[in-house]
Design brief:
By secondary structure, the protein is α/β, with parallel strands linked by helices. Helices cover 34% and strands 22% of the residues. The longest helix has 24 residues, at 351-374.
Length: 440
């Protein structure tokens, strides 16, 4: 008997791990007949994959659930569910107290979705929020959206316990997939025509499958298809080994882009954050990477207003930005998270001061990124053409191996090609140029 295919609509917030998890969820649900839709209004099942790293992500998800509830009011048959990092926190407020959603499923419980959906249709609320020490969805092939760039999750969880961060509580302990299974997936992606793969983990360079470390994994991925670009994120300075730096240096198709969160330029604050390195160690590491990979570009994460941060600490953060000269940075205000150690330290930097410090950080960093990008004007860079520009139908968007967004008129360029672009102008975020005619 033929059953009508059901539609699923998912909204994803937060980091790339969540984006990759959504693809796992779509794959699990595809098995029971659900196909994705881009319109919430057409959906039988609406899921919101949440993030709880910072407060605004949490607020936004709350708001969205209330808005999406509208579809259920119109059609009571529609199921609404919460996935991801907020599941555990929200189960009380959203399900038990306010009766807002039908399903709440944590990041390690996605295999249970079919059963939970069945229960929900039977009128039972489906809740599964346990964390696992072993779940890594090794055998589930994510349902990827077509494109040229694929996310590939290689490890889950985090054991670092930075005092500000909720991830070890929401995503649980570190666990890695086997190198063999990851590389098999790289081969599949290559056969499907993907041109770039990003190996993902909350703490990707502490990957270890019991036999192989992250450098081994990167090397094997690079050798699996030498025409495919290999990226990875996010790294922790503590696990940036010499072997790993060497591996990135010697493989042409491992992108020369290093994202290494520093968080603060003050040793006192780094200690309170439990970051396990000092400013001196971080600078030494940067020096080493720059020497081994002179063409590399760098980015970082910076946080303003961690508990007890003084004007002097903040000045040291500005100093490290000037010293390293990152190509880019993700810059945040500290946001206290329940269950973390920093939560108990109070939140003594006023909102006003946090905003002021963050703005100073952003202004300085944007100036540095702008200056670095100006040095590329007149040069030719190689880009992988990723997609049409969202701003103009006549332009294409590509990315350099150093992860710089590059916009140029379409001419004879096509998505998926690796082409040279001559840079004509640049701002802090984007390079602008024209395609260099290809030889063939
Ligand atoms: N407040 C603000 N920023 C945070 N991050 C993690 N936790 C918090 C928090 N509680 C930032 C860090 C991390 C990035 C992913 O998010 O800079 O590197
Ligand atoms: Fe959070 Fe620190 Fe782990 Fe990154 S390394 S996920 S910031 S605890």
């Amino acid at each position: 008997m033929e059953t009508k295919s059901k539609k699923i609509y998912v909204e994803t917030y937060g980091c790339q791990m969540n984006v990759a998890d959504t693809e796992v969820v779509l794959s699990v649900l595809n098995e029971i007949g659900y196909t994705p839709t881009k319109e919430a209004a057409n959906a039988d099942l609406i899921l919101v994959n949440t993030c709880s790293v910072r407060d605004n992500a949490e607020l936004r998800a709350h708001q969205r659930v209330s808005e999406l509830k509208e579809h259920k009011r119109r059609n009571p048959e529609v199921l609404i569910g919460i996935l991801g990092c907020m599941a555990e926190r929200l189960r009380t407020t959203l399900v038990e107290k306010n009766n807002l959603v039908d399903l709440v499923v944590g990041p390690d419980e996605y295999r249970k979705l079919p059963k939970l959906i069945e229960d929900a249709y039977a009128g039972q609320r489906g809740i599964a929020v346990k964390l696992s020490r072993v779940e890594n969805y090794d055998d589930i092939t994510p349902l990827r959206t077509e494109g040229i760039s694929a996310w590939l999750s290689v490890m889950r969880g985090c054991d670092k316990f930075c005092t500000f961060c909720v991830v070890p509580f929401t995503r649980g302990r570190e666990r890695s997939r086997s190198l063999k299974s990851v590389i098999e997936e790289v081969h599949k992606l290559s056969a499907q025509g993907f041109k770039e793969v990003t190996l993902l983990g909350q703490n990707v360079n502490s990957y270890h499958d019991g036999e192989y470390d992250f450098a081994d994994l990167l090397r094997s991925a690079a050798e699996a298809d030498s025409t495919m670009r290999i990226r990875y994120m996010t790294s922790h300075p503590q696990d940036m080994s010499d072997k790993l730096i060497e591996t990135i240096a010697v493989h042409k198709n491992i992108c020369k882009y290093v994202h290494l969160p520093v968080q603060s330029g003050s040793n006192r604050i780094l200690k309170l954050m439990n970051r396990t390195y000092t400013v001196e160690h971080y600078l030494g590491l940067m020096q080493k990477i720059k020497q081994a990979i002179p063409e590399a570009s760098f980015s970082t994460d910076i946080m303003a207003g961690f508990p007890t941060e003084t004007n002097e600490d903040h000045a040291m953060t500005l100093e490290i930005l000037k010293e390293v000269r990152f190509d880019g940075a993700f810059m945040f205000k500290y946001s206290p998270r329940e269950s973390t150690k920093a939560w108990d330290m109070g939140d003594d930097v006023t909102e006003e001061l946090k905003v002021e410090r963050l703005n100073e950080i952003i202004e300085l960093q944007n100036g540095i990124a702008f200056d670095i990008n100006q040095t590329l004007i007149g040069k030719e860079v190689e880009v992988l053409i990723e997609r049409d520009s969202s701003r103009s139908a006549d332009d294409l968007l590509g990315r350099t191996d150093t992860n710089k967004k590059t916009l140029f008129p379409r001419e004879n360029g096509a998505v998926g090609e690796i082409r040279s672009v001559k840079i004509e102008r640049a701002n802090a975020q984007t390079l602008f140029g024209t395609l260099v005619p290809s030889m063939n």
